Amino acid sequence: MSFSGCPHVSSFKQEPWRQSVRMLYQWFVWCGPVDARRRKARSCVCHLCGAHFGRLHACLHCIYFGCFARRHIHEHAKAKRHPLSMDLYHGTVFCLLCQDYVYDRDLELVSREEQRRAWRLQGFGDRYIGWEPSRRELELLKQNPKRRKISANCTVGLRGLVNLGNTCFMNCIVQALTHTPLLRDFFLSDRHRCGMPSPEACLVCEMCRLFQEFYSGFRSPHIPYRLLHLVWTHARHLAGYEQQDAHEFLIAALDVLHRHCKGDANGKRSNNPNHCNCIIDQIFTGGLQSDVTCQVCQGVSTTIDPFWDISLDLPGSSSPFWPLSPTAESGIPNGGGPLIPAGPTTLNDCLRRFTRPEHLGSSAKIKCNGCHSYQESTKQLTMRKLPIVACFHLKRFEHSARLRRKISTYVSFPLELDMTPFMASSKDSRVNGQYQTGESTNENKYSLFAVVNHQGTLESGHYTSFIRLHRDQWFKCDDAVITRASVTDVLDSEGYLLFYHKQILEYE
After folding, report:
1. Which positions fall inside the UBP-type domain (predicted)?
2. What gap in Å lies between CA 297 and CA 43, rounded to an integer?
């Protein structure tokens, strides 16, 4: 969005433009009367494909409506040399020649006038425009629901998904993704520029349609058959109606979205093919630092690897679990069988185990750059760069040569999580494996917004999810059925995938 104006809008205003722009605002953007809203519902269709969705734009030079997502308005603009069009959902003006939404003071004044007119026709005063309610005003609005601008019980964005045959693993991940704040902003603002030969084969285009379906206001369950077909096409190991793993689907979906985003203008840069700035990497990618310390010369070799999620071992697995609870007795990190922490296991316990120093032993010697010989070493993982959305995968399904089973150990996880102790910059604050309490930074604090759960056994189970719509307002998504849930219901659940969002980038 440009706020510095546009020369093409200035040229457009040399014509008698005000009446046509005012008509678009009155009839389609800020339509107030009932008959105007009905007119909008009937006539807001793309003149090329007849679709109601796809972020319709109206040409400012002639009478033409076209899809922005399918680029029908772009085709019209090029063919007729009509560069300016208006988004009929938000009233913003798009310039094809500038390839951006543009701001103009005169257009803004007309928009504000028509918005006030529409509010007055619906019985609201001018003070509601750009209004932020105080606590007292919220109480008054609750007592007078007909004048309410916002609602604490608003459920826009909540929509069930039909199970197409053991597709609960997909439905629960879709619910988490569609309620990821920054991802929602991206897909609802048409920032995707499809670079694939066939947009019908693009998973990002399908996600754009899916977000529009979720936030369209319809309450009937959505049937995600297109999404399932694209998943089968681009991730063939997930094809078929057998039960699949939700974590495996999450990684496959992020990978396909990442690959299909590379054609975006905001995707992979031509001058640096190893760097990707697509929306998936911006939100989900973090940096994991691995420090290997030689036991002879104390030389440190550091590598940094990107990650989309963090997989955490649980007590009860065949791998040893270091007792990290403050009341636990000291133990050897790599010795004997599985070690269970004293008391309930927490997410912080699992993260401490994940970032503890680990002695690699004589059977895994690494050539030291300082000694120039193979020596025993110690390896430690820490967080070098935190993602906007941190996804934690609790490894409940164990597959080994000896056994295949589900680990149902309860792991307590918090509503708010501070990742400061697990940062690479916090390594020096650790004494004997314990984490010292020091200064924390708001940039490392997260809030829980989605939880995926698995009920049943390894052979037969079912996935559900908890979604936070507003602060402390949670809902349980069980395929097509959505019910209200309490914070206690969420925190008492078993937990398989935990989604946390950076607090400094959150909004209500």
Report:
1. 4-121
2. 76
**Alpha carbons 452 and 465: distance in angstroms, whole number:** 4
Report how far residue 184's alpha carbon sits from residue 156's, in angstroms, rounded to the nearest whole number.
Answer: 13
- Of 260, 270, 267, 278, nearest in space to 198 by CA: 260
Query: Which contacts (CB < 8 Å, 24+ apart) does range 15-22 have?
Result: 17/60, 18/110, 20/60, 21/60, 21/86, 21/107, 21/110, 22/110, 22/113, 22/114
In angstroms, rounded to a whole number, what is the distance separating the alpha carbons of residues 469 and 482? 12
Q: Note the pLDDT tens digit of each residue in 192-239.
A: 777 777 777 888 888 988 998 888 777 888 889 889 888 888 888 887
Nearest to 416 by CA among 383, 448, 438: 448
Determine the Cα–Cα distance for residues 451 and 467; give it in Å rounded to an integer.
Answer: 7
Angle, helices 203-214 vs 246-261, to 10°: value is 110
Helix axes 168-178, 181-188, angle to 10 degrees: 80
**Residue 72 appears among annotated catalytic residues:** no
Q: Catalytic residue among 168, 261, 276, 278, which?
A: 168
CA 60 vs CA 83, 115, 375: distances in Å = 8, 19, 72
Element (H, E) at 391: strand 389-394
Q: Measuring CA to CA, which residue among 154, 157, 171, 295 is closest to residue 223?
A: 171
Please indicate whether residue 462 is annotated as part of the active site: yes
Cα-based angle 85, 262, 89 (whole degrees, multiple of 5):
25
Instruction: Say how far apart CA 128 and CA 120 lie, in whole Å.
Output: 10
pTM assigned to the model: 0.66
Look up residue 62 and give its amino acid: C
